[in-house]
Amino acid sequence: MNTPDALDELIACRLDAGRKALEPCSVVIFGASGDLTARKLIPALYHLHLEKQLPPAFRVLGVARREKTDAAWREELREALGRFSRTQPVNEEAWHQFAAHLKYCRGDLTDPATYARLKETLAAAPDPSLQQNLLFYLATLPSQFAEVVRQLHQAGLLQRDAGKGWQRIVVEKPFGHDLASARALNQELARHAHEHQVFRIDHYLGKETVQNILMFRFSNSIFERLWNRESVDHVQITVSEKNGVGERGAYYEEAGALRDMVQNHILQVLALVAMEPPVSLEAESIRDEKVKLLKSIRLPAPEEVARHVARGQYFAGVVDGRPQPGYRQEPKVRPDSNVETYVALRLFVDNWRWSGVPFYVRTGKCLPLSASEVRIQFRPTPHVLFAAACNGRLDPNALTLRLQPDEGISIRFNGKVPGINLAVRPVRMHFSYDSEFGAYTPEAYERLLLEALAGDATLFIRRDEVECAWRIVDAIRAGWDGKPLTNREFYAAGTWGPVAAEDLLAQSGHVWHEPRPVK
Ligand code: BG6
After folding, report:
1. Are 273 and 281 in contact (CB under 8 A)?
2. How many angstroms separate the CA atoms of 433 and 410, rounded?
């Protein structure tokens, strides 16, 4: 008979066996001098190298405008790795081996000569797979995405029809700034690449805990049968952040919390929490279900937005004991800006499973703590038998998926307080990733890069999915059009958001549950 440990190993082996060995390839990063490359992409590739996950032959070509030697680029990246690597100190031997695969190509992204030089550099690779299997990573300004893809196609580096090897494009966020611009970008990409070659990133899908949502729902029978309007009273999704916008004022002025967080991360989490079981684990099956769910989200008419949505902007306050300037005082922010740094929504999913169940989602900057969680709040008991023991108010059961930090799952239920008096109070049962599996914290980008190299699009956003999400965001923005923020919509940095957000839940007799550290 298999012992539990042997079973765990068996399952792990089967999962590994599902992944094909990666083929030799070249990763081309456009925006090689940028923040994303230094902070996320190179540290992720370095860790994949460290863990022997990269193909036997690979190389990384960085393209950017500034004149730079390979050595200078490597030195820059090594310095950044010292600051951003999730493991410290950096393993010098592994870094040197890895750095030997890094090459820099100078060039203006609008100039065809850049792509001709890139082509020559690629053609000089000794292994034909390194010349033909190409992962193009667009870590550039969003306004350059379409141009780079067009130029790649024109240079013959990106083949739309099956040719030699494979070519894929990884597109960073933001993917458009509304439905019309996302559609236009999709159309432009489709002119030069097939949908199966396009990998739209949402780094939340690379997080272990987000991937575990489907595993949790569809590999356990005790929860899924409660996962519907019969048992669930409402759902809360919180993605709170302590940080302000800092140096990203210029970007944030164009984005705001709704576009920056809800359009992508929060709607993705919501889709995974609420979607129907997929037919299989194929990328298309999962993405079909997510699209169906996103299409079922009711779009508010402009005049209904104020009733279902609360927005806010932080003013000066104190976060973690440190003074925090107001949003309007942040660098590159207009002094009379109306951009929201907080948003809370009540969404309804109009389908059989969720009819009438509110999904409350909220996200904001400069809140008291950084935490992301999903809380499934179950219906109260139909009759309170222990009324005397709890003053007539029994806490409803809740299940919390803690996405970060303190990754894990908690169940809240009622228990008898030991003693001769009859008293009942809520208690919590916790599962923690850390204590169960040990510290395993790969960065989301490691997983996503690996999936893109393997050609598995499950953790990436499909064309129709991104458009469905923008449709929801556009409907909300239409209700804000031309309406400046009112006094009730401002909140002090370091607090849980504007009063309007409390009112949003109070209308239906609900309250927000603050994420709580487990330990
Ligand atoms: C990014 C947003 O997509 O996600 C940032 O642009 C935000 O504003 C970040 O801070 C949050 O990601 P994480 O992984 O820290 O929760």
Report:
1. no
2. 11
Phi and psi, residue 330, nearest 5°: -70, 155
Structure-block tokens of residue 315: 């003013």
Q: Read off the pTM.
A: 0.93
Q: Specify the residue with its C-alpha closest to ligand 1, atom 13.
A: 204
Query: In what helix (H) or strand (E) does residue 235 lie, and over which residues does it extend?
Result: strand 232-240
Specify the amino acid at residue 360. Answer: Y
- Strand stretches in 161-230, DSSP E: 167-171, 198-200
Assess whether the C-beta atom of 260 lies below 6 angstroms from ligand 1: yes
Rounded (5°) CA angle 509-512-516: 145
Q: Determine the Cα–Cα distance for residues 328 and 325; give it in Å rounded to an integer.
A: 8
Torsion sign, CA atoms 98, 104, 109, 114: negative
In the annotation, is 194 catalytic?
A: no
CATH code of the domain occupying 24-172:
3.40.50.720
C-alpha separations of 391 from 89, 151, 395, 510 in Å: 56, 70, 11, 19
State the distance from the centre of ligand 1 to the C-alpha of 240, rounded, in angstroms: 10
Q: Where are the domains of the chain?
A: 24-172, 205-506
| Residuewise pLDDT in 10s, the chain (519 residues) | 344 444 344 334 333 445 678 899 999 999 999 999 999 999 999 999 999 999 989 999 999 999 999 999 999 999 999 999 999 999 999 999 999 999 999 999 999 999 999 999 999 988 889 999 999 999 999 999 999 999 999 999 998 776 789 999 999 999 999 999 999 999 999 999 999 999 999 999 999 999 999 999 999 999 989 999 999 999 999 999 999 999 899 999 999 999 999 999 999 999 999 999 999 999 999 999 999 999 999 999 999 999 999 999 999 999 999 999 999 999 999 999 999 999 999 999 999 999 999 999 999 999 999 999 999 999 998 887 777 777 777 889 999 999 999 899 999 999 999 998 888 889 999 999 888 888 767 789 999 999 999 999 999 999 999 999 999 999 999 999 989 999 999 999 999 999 999 999 999 999 999 998 776
Cα 372 to middle of ligand 1, angstroms: 11
- C-beta of 241 in contact with ligand 1 (< 6 A): yes
CATH number of 205-506: 3.30.360.10
Distance 483 CA to ligand 1 centre (A): 27
Q: How far is CA 491 from CA 129, 316, 496, in A?
A: 55, 9, 8
Report which secondary-structure segment, H or E, holds 364.
strand 358-364
Backbone angles phi and psi of 372, in degrees to 5: -125, 130
Type of residue numbered 40 = K
